């Protein structure tokens, strides 16, 4: 394992629960991962697995009063974010850590012009005004390749196309040169052709600015294209984490393997599309052991009773599964 | 935007015509409008003169044209009781009513909007509960009863304020508060629910992600969008305001058009009633158009379409 | 086909079964008000319209000069206030129910037609609705009363004219969203006639929100009717309409405040209970109508 000092972000045993009238929902239940400087980390999982809440927890924007971070440490640039005061958090948000949200139509305020919305964050953290501010806004828009930026700043969100709007949210995120950008499914609401463009842009910008990127998605295809490393989440826990290539070549956790086998491969003619039997569990009603046990074909009594600790196998590859020692390196995945 | 405004203006025009037509027929429903328009003390000559003036012997559509032409000239007829021109009487009373309406509107908008925002932001806690209790009570209180009770307590028992009539600020307080009560309750509820919707949107989330302080998030980002439903509610609000004003003026003997119309009812002064209805109705329609213009400034989606 | 309207019917039944957590006091008050209205002539100790002049202007029983014979006091004509308030319940409730029924029917039909068929019909009808909403109806109420005189029927007509646009608007909105739902599309694929679709599929799903609106509107009607009666252009005397009683008692406010107080209190409590109940109903039903 590499020395701790080089990690930009280190999350230790983060737990975010929601306290509702119907009981406690353990949206994020003890996850740990790290992100290095300049790398793209993917956080993959189905809807409802807790990945979005993870992103919000890092910025301490979990919806209150129902939601609360109950335990854990989030160490960013050497300091625990969870111990900071609200004022200190506000300084970090937007300038050191920023976020790109999924749907640009709803994440931009419909009543304000684009220039105003981009300028707002620059003015707040950069303390610039007037002409300098205008310059910076135009620079930020040019950075994300928005043509005719000088005229575009006067537009309202509804006057722009979806792809263009998503670039604006990218501009807002990048404008203050953050060390970490959390991208929460930024391409889900875009057309497929625009998706590819946008991802390319993100990748280029990331390499250009050396920003770390935490990419939250449900799409393994995007992971393959964008991420250096990836963590797979299921029902509030991280079940496997590895470098992208390792995950694709050698998925170890039954859930990851099941997800892989669901991806149709172009060279194989499939008669039936594979799917994983069963449903993700209710987050208010979790079994004491491995969360995937109800749907796992290899689940044993032990799997149901006790939660498997993370085992490190190979270089930088961690898996939480009791059955993992049964497989050897090199064994390829067969469809479950 | 021009298309939107033009459409609204056209609609206001239609509404105006509907209003004019209803009033026109109201007088003629009884069969012999002369009785309504002239009163019991009129001489034969006066009756004949009036018949000719309104063209009451002529066919309906001619009468209607005459009616419209009178209105176009600002001629609303003459009051039976005082024989003065209705237009003059109404204009005299305008100032008093506007004073009361402005005071009530200002009060209710301030209280309603601010409290509504505050309740939404502090959802669930004691202040919110108090606000909601106030809102539901305010909307359930009959305006006339509230006015009488306030008058009883503050003017008769405590002798802090005058009972009725118009004068300085102290005369304005009770009527304005009475009128503002129901109004602010409605505005509070609407603002609160609109703000609750907005506070859960993605763009508010993004505003927080940017690192903006809560104060700015709420008062700059949320409120700007939150006001929009309140503005669209304005048409209904205005109609309620007029009704409330008539009742309040009656209770507090405030010398506005509300009191005037009720006196006209008591004295069976139909031309005066008719004149006030036309005047005030048109005024309300005009106000609605002005509010529509205001709306386009608040919602850029309308402006740039 | 029956399956899908059964779904709609189940919605109605599930409403009845979710009465847990209902605001108890308002419901109790409303039940009492209804019972009072129904059994008014039996409950009222004296006649509401015929008074006993020697007993005029008596204060409530706890004050000096009051008696338990007339617990709430008597008015200027010696009529028992309690009896008048009790019988007044009938007037207020019957106007509320009739007005809501007629306005609701008209408004629902307009809303269904407008929302379902769309196009120029929709545009036209909604323009009518907007026009109706922009004219302050109280003015028309006053002028119609002046022209035609005051009566029970007149006031109902006026209030129905005031109310129907609210129903039309809401029903239209609901219809627009319901008609896109799967079970309606299926019905159309199966070649059901328009009437059948509206009646069996759309209408049952509109009913819950209609009930909420009706409850809140009933409260509104009572306020409107009492204001009109207070002004003298509503229910004519000697009927014991609450608003009218407040108006009659106004002259004696300083000396005999009970004349205006009791009827006003009755209005307030009834309207408050209706509003609280309607609000609770709306909160209950909303999550089922919209997605959380």
Q: Determine the structural class of chain B based on helices, strands and strand pairing.
A: mainly alpha
Low-confidence stretches of chain B: none
CATH class of chain C: Mainly Alpha
Question: What is the count of distinct domains of chain C?
Answer: 1
Number of helices of chain B: 14
> What is the N-to-C succession of helices and strands of chain C?
HHHHHHHHHHH
User: Which outline of chain C best applies?
Assistant: elongated
- On the 0 to 100 scale, the average pLDDT of chain C is 84
- CATH architecture classification name of the largest domain in chain B: Orthogonal Bundle
Rounded to an integer in angstroms, the radius of gyration calculated over CA atoms of chain B is 23 Å
The named CATH superfamily of chain C? MetI-like
N- to C-terminal distance of chain B: 6 Å
Q: Can you count the beta strands of chain B?
A: 0
Tell me which oligomeric state these chains represent.
heterotrimer
Beta content of chain C: under 5%
Largest interface: B-C, 53 and 45 residues
Unreliable stretches of chain C (pLDDT < 50, length at least 5) are: none
CATH fold-level assignment of chain C? MetI-like fold
Quick overview:
Chain A contains 12 helices and 12 strands. Chain A has helices at residues 51-58, 86-92, 104-107, 114-126, 130-143, 149-152, 162-174, 192-209, 220-226, 244-249, 254-262, 301-305; strands at 7-20, 23-36, 40-44, 67-76, 79-80, 97-100, 180-184, 212-217, 229-234, 237-243, 311-312, 318-319. The radius of gyration of chain A is 21 Å and the shape is globular.
């Amino acid at each position: 394992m590499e020395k701790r000092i080089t990690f930009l972000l280190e999350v230790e045993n983060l737990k975010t629960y929601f306290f509702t009238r119907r009981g406690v929902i353990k949206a994020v239940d003890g996850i740990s991962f790290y992100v290095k400087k300049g790398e793209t980390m993917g956080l993959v999982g189905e809807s409802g697995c807790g990945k979005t809440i993870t992103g919000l927890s890092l910025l301490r924007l979990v919806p209150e009063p129902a939601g609360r971070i109950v335990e854990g440490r989030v160490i960013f640039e050497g300091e625990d974010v969870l111990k900071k005061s609200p004022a200190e958090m506000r300084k970090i948000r937007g300038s050191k850590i920023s976020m790109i949200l999924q749907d640009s139509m709803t994440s931009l305020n419909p009543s304000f012009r684009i220039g105003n919305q981009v300028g707002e964050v620059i003015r707040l953290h950069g303390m610039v005004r007037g002409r300098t501010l205008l310059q910076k806004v135009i620079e930020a828009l040019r950075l994300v390749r928005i043509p005719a930026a000088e005229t575009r700043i006067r537009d309202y969100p509804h006057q722009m196309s979806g792809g263009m709007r998503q670039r604006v949210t990218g501009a807002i995120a990048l404008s203050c040169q953050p060390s970490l950008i959390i991208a929460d499914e930024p391409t889900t609401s875009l057309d497929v052709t625009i998706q590819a463009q946008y991802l390319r842009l993100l990748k280029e910008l990331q390499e250009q600015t050396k920003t770390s990127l935490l990419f939250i998605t449900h799409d393994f295809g995007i992971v393959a294209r964008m991420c250096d490393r990836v963590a797979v989440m299921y029902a509030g826990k991280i079940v496997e984490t590895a470098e992208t290539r390792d995950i694709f070549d050698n998925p170890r956790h039954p859930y990851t393997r099941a997800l892989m086998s669901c991806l149709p491969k172009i060279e194989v003619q499939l008669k039936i599309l594979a799917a994983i039997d069963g449903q993700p569990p209710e987050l208010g009603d979790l079994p004491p052991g491995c969360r995937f046990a109800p749907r796992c074909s290899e689940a044993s009594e032990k799997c149901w009773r006790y939660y498997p600790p993370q085992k490190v196998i190979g270089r930088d590859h961690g898996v939480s599964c009791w059955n993992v020692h049964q497989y050897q390196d090199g064994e390829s995945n067969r469809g479950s | 935007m021009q298309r939107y405004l033009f459409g609204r203006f056209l609609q206001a025009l239609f509404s105006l015509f509907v209003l004019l037509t209803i009033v026109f027929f109201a007088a003629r429903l009884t069969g012999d409008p002369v009785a309504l328009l002239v009163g019991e003390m009129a001489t034969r000559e006066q009756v004949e003169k009036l018949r000719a003036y309104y063209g009451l012997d002529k066919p309906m559509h001619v009468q209607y044209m005459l009616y419209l032409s009178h209105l176009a000239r600002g001629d609303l007829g003459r009051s039976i009781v005082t024989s003065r021109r209705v237009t003059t009487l109404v204009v005299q009373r305008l100032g008093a009513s506007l004073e009361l309406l402005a005071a009530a509107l200002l009060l209710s908008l301030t209280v309603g909007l601010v409290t509504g925002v505050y309740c939404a932001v502090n959802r669930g806690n004691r202040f919110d509960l108090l606000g909601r209790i106030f809102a539901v009570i305010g909307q359930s209180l009959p305006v006339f009863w509230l006015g009488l009770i306030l008058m009883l307590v503050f003017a008769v028992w405590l002798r802090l304020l005058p009972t009725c009539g118009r004068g300085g600020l102290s005369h304005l307080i009770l009527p304005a508060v009475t009128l503002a009560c129901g109004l602010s309750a409605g505005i509070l509820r609407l603002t609160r629910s609109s703000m609750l919707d907005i506070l859960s949107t993605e763009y508010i989330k993004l505003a927080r992600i940017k690192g903006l302080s809560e104060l700015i998030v709420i008062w700059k980002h949320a409120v700007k969008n939150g006001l929009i439903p309140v503005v669209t509610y304005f048409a209904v609000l205005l109609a309620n305001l007029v009704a409330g004003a008539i009742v309040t003026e009656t209770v507090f003997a405030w010398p506005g058009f509300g009191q005037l119309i009720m006196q006209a009812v008591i004295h069976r002064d139909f031309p005066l009633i008719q004149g006030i209805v036309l005047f005030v109705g048109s005024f309300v329609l005009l106000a609605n158009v002005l509010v529509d213009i205001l709306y386009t400034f608040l919602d850029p989606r309308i402006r740039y379409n | 086909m029956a399956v899908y309207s059964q779904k709609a019917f189940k919605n109605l039944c599930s409403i009845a079964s979710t009465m847990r957590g209902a605001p108890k006091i308002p419901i109790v008050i409303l039940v009492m008000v209804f019972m009072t209205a129904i059994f008014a002539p039996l409950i009222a100790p004296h006649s509401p319209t015929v008074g006993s002049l020697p007993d005029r202007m008596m204060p409530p029983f706890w004050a000096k000069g009051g008696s338990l014979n007339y617990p709430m006091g008597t008015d200027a004509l010696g009529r028992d206030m309690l009896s008048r308030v009790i019988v007044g319940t009938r007037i207020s409730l019957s106007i509320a129910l009739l007005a809501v029924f007629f306005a609701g029917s008209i408004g629902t039909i307009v809303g269904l037609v407008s929302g379902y068929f769309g196009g120029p019909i929709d545009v036209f009808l909604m323009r009518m609705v907007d026009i109706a909403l922009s004219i302050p109806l109280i003015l028309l109420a006053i002028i119609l009363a002046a022209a035609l005189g005051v009566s029970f029927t007149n006031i109902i007509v006026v209030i129905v004219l005031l109310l129907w646009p609210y129903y039309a608007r809401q029903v239209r909105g609901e219809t627009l969203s319901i008609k896109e739902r799967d079970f309606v599309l299926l019905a159309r694929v199966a070649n059901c006639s328009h009437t059948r679709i509206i009646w069996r599929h759309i209408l049952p799903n509109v009913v819950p929100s209609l009930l909420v609106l009706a409850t809140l509107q009933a409260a509104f009607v009572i306020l409107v009717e009492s204001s009109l009666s207070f002004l003298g252009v509503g229910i004519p005397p000697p009927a014991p309409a609450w608003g009218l009683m407040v108006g009659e008692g106004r002259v004696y406010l300083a000396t005999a405040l009970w004349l205006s107080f009791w009827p006003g209190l009755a209005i307030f409590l009834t309207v408050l209970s209706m509003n609280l109940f309607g609000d609770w109903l709306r909160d209950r039903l909303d999550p089922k109508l919209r997605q959380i």
